[in-house]
Design goal:
417 residues, alpha+beta, 2 domains, six-stranded mixed β-sheet, two-stranded antiparallel ribbon, elongated, nuclease
Length: 417
Amino acid sequence: MAEIVRAGIAIVAQLLIDELNNLHAIKKRRPRRMWIREWIKRRNEFGASATFLREVALEDPETFRNHLRLTTNQFEELLSMVEHLIKKQDTLMRAAVEPRIKLQITLRYLATGDSFSTLEHMYRIPKSTISKFLPEVLKAIYEGLKDFIKFPSTEDEWLKIAEDLDKTTNFPNLLGAVDGKHVRIIPPRGSGSYFFNYKGEHSLVLMAVVNSNYEFIMIDFGVNGRISNGGVIEYTKFYDKLKNGTLCLPPPRSLKNTNHSFPFIFVGDEAFTLRPDFLKPFNQRELDHDKKIFNYRLSRARCRVENTFGIMSARFRIFHTAIGINLKAIERVVLACCVLHNFLRRKYASLYTPDNYCFDRENIDTGTTELGLQCNMNNLQRSYNRHSNNTAKEVRQLFMDYFNQNGAVSWQERMIR
C-alpha cells in the first residue's frame, strides 16, 4: 500500500514539473524596455537649459530673472556655492545630470510650484529623476546660504537690531517682529486631520522673527497646522530660550526724557501670549484713545514681518500652491526659500525689492495705509485662552504711556481716526 502511495506522489510531482516546463517554454519574453526615452536623450540640444535659458541669458536678462528669480550673475554665484554638493559622477551606463540643470530646475520649482511633469517636459529630465535630486539641491542651497540667517548671540548684536528697528519703526527697545504662517501642503496618505487647520486646509507652520531689513533672524518650521493658535511658538527653541532667559538679551534701559526702565521686547499679533518681553495689541473690544495709539505703533513694527512673508511668497510662488511632496522635502523647500530671501535681500536688495516695490506704506498726510504685497500664507488663529500676568500688562502699559507722551510721533493722531 505504501508503495502505491509513493508511486502516486511521484507521478503527480512529475506531472507538475512537466507543466511548469511547458509554461516556461511557451512564455513569451517581455520586450525589453528602453533605458531612456529618445526625446529625453536630446535634452542637451533641445531642453530649456540648452535653448531657452541660454538665449534669454544673452538677449533678455529680465526674462531670465523672472524664470528663476535670480539674475545670471546671482545664479552663477549660487551655483558656485552649491555645485560641489550636488555634482554626481558619470557612470558607464549614462551621464549624470549637470549641477547647472539641477539648480535651474529646483529654482524654477520654487518660483512657480510647477509639477514634476511640467518640469520634465520643459527640461527633458525624467520626473522620477527630478524627484530624487530636488531634495538634495534644496538641502545644498540651505547649507550654502545658511549663514545669511544668523540668530544674535550677544548683547551687542541685539542692540544693533534694536537700533535699526527704532530708526525704521519708531519703536524703541524692539528686538524683532514675530509671526507665524500656515504653509499649505497635500497631506500624507493616512494622516487624517492631523495637519488640518482652522481655514479648512492642511498645513505646516513657519514661525519667524524678522529684523528691520525684512530679513529672517530666526525660522522654525514643522509644527502641524492643527495647532493653529499662538501655542505654535511654544514648540520653538526661540521661545524656550526666551522663557528660560538664555537669549543674552540686553538689560532694561531708560528711554529719552523718561525716568523709567524699559525692557527689550519682541512684538507679535493677537495670536500670541502677552509677556514682559513679548508685547501684543490690546483687544479690539477694550480700546480707548491711548490704547489705539499703542496698537498703531505696534502694528507699524509688526508690519515688518508681514511684509517679509509677502515678499517671499510673491517671489517664490510655490507658496501659492499646496506643496505635494514628502514632509522632509517640504521642510527643505521652506528653509531654502528663507535663506534665498535673506541672500537676495542682503546682497541684491535693489534688484530683489526695488525702491518702488509694493511694501505696505503709510500716508501720514491722509492717515491711511496703502497695502502692498499680500502674503498668500494664512495667519495663525487668534488665541483666546492664554492669560497674561500682571507684570506683562504693566510693561505694555509702560510702553503705551510712552507712545502717548514723550515717545509720540507727529502723525499718529491722524492714523487712528
